[in-house]
Amino acid sequence: MRYLPALGSLVAVGAVLAALPFLLSAYHVALAAQVGIFFIAVLGLNILTGYTGQISIGHGAFMAIGGYTTAVLSRDHHTNLVLTMIAAFAICLVFGVLVGLPALRLSGVYLALATFALAISVPQLPLKWSKFLGGRDGVQTATTPSHVWLYAAAWTASAILFVLAWLILRGRVGRAFRAVRDSEIAAVASGVELPLYKTLAFGISAAYAGIAGSLFVLATNGFAAPDEFGVVLSLELLIGAAVAGLGSLWGILAGAAFIGLLPTVSSSVPVIGSAHGQDVVFGAAVVLVMLLIPDGFAGLVARVRRLAGA
Amino acid sequence: MAVNRRKLGALLCALLITAAVAGAAAASHTGTPGVTSNKIVIGGTFPLTGPASLYKTIPAAEQAYYAYVNAKGGVFHRKIVDNVLDDQYDPSQTVPQTQKLVEQDHVFAVVGSLGTAPILSTWNYLNKLKIPQVLVATGDAFWGNCVHHACQGGTKPWTLGWQPDYPGEAKLYAKYILQKNKNAKIGVIYQNDAYGKNYLAGLKTGLGSSANQIVDAESYNLGDSAQVIAAHVVALRAHGADTFVIFATPTATIQSLVARTLIGWSPLTLVNNVSANRVFELLAAQNGANLDGIISTVYTASSTTQPNLPGMKLATSIIHKYAPSLDQSLAQGDGNIIYGLAVGWTFVDALQHAGKNLTRAGLMQALRNMKETKNPFIYPGMTVETSKKRTFPMEQLKLIKWSGGKTGDWHAFGKIFSGLH
Predict the structure, then answer these.
(1) In order of start, what are the domains of chain B with their CATH numbers?
(2) pTM score of the predicted model
C-alpha cells in the first residue's frame, strides 16, 4: 500500500508516454525522445549529486565516451544499436569508478574542478586519435534509427533505469549514500565503507550518462563529433539536476524537459530569440528557477502538496 | 496527496493533447512542401552565437537579398521566406534545428547552411527524404565528389556546394609558389581536421614531384591559444622554411600573422581564401601584424576596391535598405556579406529556371544545370556553372595581394584561373 501513489504516477506517466507517438507529429516525437535522453542523464546525475552530495561538472565527458562507443562500434562492426548502448553502459561504469577514485580525496569545490577538467579534456581525445575517433570530422554510425525507434529506445531505457535507480536507492545502498551526503564522519562511524559507496555512486552515475550519450549520438543522426560534447553540455546537465531537485519522478521529468526543450523553444522567443542567443534565454530561465524554486521542481511539488494538505 | 498527483497528471495530459492537436493542424499540406501560390518557405542553420558567430553576416545578407527580391514582386509572384536558425556550429544542435525546418516549418529546401560537420550530420537525413540541401557554405570536396560516388552509405545527389573547393584552391597556391621560386622551402600550418587536411592534400597534389619541398607541416586544433599557434610558427621558421602557407580559420590566421611579425620573420606568405576577408586582416594589423605582400585568392567582388561596379553599388543599396546594421561591416570590406548576397542571387536565379510549377526535383535540375554569367556579386568575369559532369559550381579564382599596411586592402592581380578542380 505504501508504494501505491508512486506506482499510480509511474503508470500514468508510462501510459502518456506510450500514447505520445500516436498523437504527436514526427518532429515532436523527436523532441520527446530528446527529453527522454536527458531524463536518463539527469537521473544519473541525481544519484551522484542529490544522494551522495558529490558535485560533477563533467558528466558531458561520460556522455561523450558513451556516444563514441556507440558510433565506433556501429561504424567498425555494424553492431546492433541496442548492444552498443549496453556496451556504453559498461564502459562508462568502469570509467566512472576510475574517476571516482580521486574523488575520494577531493570534496566540494575541488571535486567540481576535477570533473570540470574531465569535461574539457575528453572532447579533445578524438583530435588526438583522429584515425580511430574521426577527429573533428566525426564518426558516422552504419545505421541511423527513425524518430519512433529513438523515442521508444530512450523511454524504455528511461523506465528500466528509473526502476533500477529506485531499487538501488530504496534499501541499504540508498541509506549509505544519504549518510555519506549528510556527514561522512558519521557515516564511517556507522560502518559505511566510504570508498566503496563513493566510487559506486560515481560508477552508476557515469553509466547512466553513458547510455544517455549513446542515445544522444543516435539522435544526432548517428553522427558523433567533439563539438557536440562541449563544456556547456556538462553545465546543462547540472542545471537539469538543479531544476529537478531531489529524488522525484516529476522533478526529473521537469529537469529533463527544461534542458531538452529550451534550446529549441528559446529560438522562437520573440525579441531575444534566435538572433540574440539561446544562451541568454537559458541563463535567464535558470536565474528565475533558482530564485522562485530553489529546491527544484521536486521542492515545488512538495510545497504544493503541503499547501493542499494544510 | 494522491489527489495532487492525479491533478498534475491530468494537467500534463491536457497539455500534451493540445500540443498534438496543434501539431496535426500545422501538418496539413498539399503539393510541394513549403510552396504555395504566394510563398516559398526555405531555411538554413548558421552559427548566430558562439565561437563561430562571426559568420552571422552571411545569413543576414541572404535574408536582405530575399527581402529585396520580394519587394520587387518575388519569384513568379511568390515571396521567399527564409527561416534562419542558430546551431552554434554544433552538429547536435544542427540536427534538431534541421528537423525543425523540415518537420515543423515544412521548408521547401535547406539553403546555405554553414560548416562541414553540421552538413555531414544532416546530409544522410536530407538525402533520404529527398530534400534539397543546397549552396552549403563550406568548400570541402565532399559536396562535389559524392554526387555520383557513394559516401557515408550512399550517393548524395540532393547536396550541393557553391564556393571553390579547398583542394582546388590549394593547387593554385602550389602553382604560384613554384612560379615564384622553384626551390622554395615550404612551411605549412593547417587546422587538424578535414578542412585543413583537404587544403594540405591539394597543395601536395599541386606541387607534384616538388612535394618534398614542404620542409614542415604543423597542425593546430581549433581553439588553440595564441601561444600554441606562435610555437608552431617558430617551429616552421626553425625548419628553414622560406615560404609560409596558412591553411586556417580566421582566428588562427590572425594569430599566425601576428606571430610571424613578432618573431621578425618575413617569408613569402599565403593565406587561404576563408581568412582573406579584409575585416580579419585589419584586426591582425591592429594587433601588430605586418601584412604587406601577403598572397591569397578571391572569387567575390570587393566592396572596398571595386566600389564602382554595378554589383557593389547594388550591394550597398540592398544592405542599406534591408539590413542597415551591416552598413559599417560592408564599408570595411566584410566579404561574407558579398558572399551571402551572391548565394542569394544564385538561389533566386535557380528558382526562376525551375519555373512556375516549382518542385524539389525541379530545383535540383535547375541547380545542376546552371550557367550564371551575370551574378553581380562574384568577381567580374567569373561564372557559376554546373552540368551532369561538373559538380563543383565555382571553379575559378583570382590571386590577390595585400598592400597599404595597417589601413591597406587586398588588390587583385594576374589572370583568372579556371578549371581548378
Answers:
(1) 34-164+304-390 (3.40.50.2300), 166-298+398-417 (3.40.50.2300)
(2) 0.83
